[in-house]
Amino acid sequence: MQVKLNVVVAAAAALLSGAAMAQDLVVKIGHVGPTSGAIAHLGKDNELGARMAIDDLNAKGVTIGGKKAKFELLAEDDAGDPKQGTAAAQKLVDSKVNGVVGHLNSGTSIPASKIYSDAGIPQISPSATATQYTRSGYKTAFRVVADDGHLGGTLGRYAVKELKGQSIAVIDDKTAYGAGVADEFVKGVKAAGGKTVGRESTTDKSTDFTAILTTLKGKKPDVIFFGGMDAVAGPMLRQMKQLGITAKFMGGDGICTAKLPELAAGTMADDQVICAEAGGVEGESKKSLDAFKAKFKEKYKVDVQIYAPYVYDAVNVLVNAMVKAGSSDPAKYLPVLAKTEGYKGVTGTISFDNKGDLKNGALTMYTYKGGARSEMGVVH
């Protein structure tokens, strides 16, 4: 009799355990970034931001529609390559993710956005700044940083008004991001009454810039703008030094990383490099960002490179919409996500306009002193 009773108790416990598990809601968040290749340090930074958000959400015990949510991160590597990016996007769609944070690059975010749109899955990029990303008419595409129109234009005006650039040269890496931000920079220069004396192109995988730099040197530029990433900007700065080019070197958020001095191998002069990060906080918000960076370093034993806080916010903005909608079903929470207004994140207040762009996006201007990044101020 006792054996039968034990069996009954065990069976009842199993049923109760199964019922409890059935109450849990598994929410899959996809993340895509280049965790291999030349800018793997940036992709890994992004992925760690996503993992930190997932860990924090699970620790909080978030409920969605009355069910306790268990968050899982599905991380993919796109190597910064558009073809690999679309393959990664399709893999996440096939895995039935509830939402996606990524991709890092505009060149991968743009083609991937169609795949997510076709599947009805919301995508928030923490770092894609090309204007085209949110201009394709896809209701599923959002970003939590300012776009190239704001970033490139601001830097162009800064080159003329603040740096007093008389002969401004431009180089881009032919990617959606690099060429796009360079185009906007040129528009900003012209709008401020300045002029460009030459434009050259390279690729995001090049290592030798002697020919294009020699061509530009003949034009005696006092400012050189580079549209591209830090993995190319570092060697370019080294070769500028070798050629005796002392021009100010400007760029967007792609070069504005903690790793740039290392990539430039100590050849940067103080205040030579001026760049802007698509995002910016000041006042009380800065305390939240500083606290995040300290927690990040304690958890992962590395410093934030650049975008990890934006990834962290993007994950939380997705989940905030799910909680408000009472559902993790993309079709049900997408309309709520689109109406995000006044969300307080570690990178500041997040609100989306009707294109999925960040309202009132700020920029933070930086230079480098003593081999370290130094903040110059926030521009709105």
Automatic annotation (TrEMBL):
InterPro entries: Leu-bd, Leu_Ile_Val-bd, Peripla_BP_I. Pfam families: Peripla_BP_6. The keyword Signal applies. Residues 27-370 form the Leucine-binding protein domain. Gene3D superfamilies: 3.40.50.2300. It comes from the Bacteria. Residues 1-22 form the signal peptide. Keywords: Amino-acid transport, Signal, Transport. Belongs to the leucine-binding protein family. PANTHER family: AMINO ACID BINDING PROTEIN, LEU/ILE/VAL-BINDING ABC TRANSPORTER SUBUNIT. This is Branched-chain amino acid ABC transporter substrate-binding protein. It comes from Roseateles agri. The lineage of its organism: Bacteria, Pseudomonadati, Pseudomonadota, Betaproteobacteria, Burkholderiales.
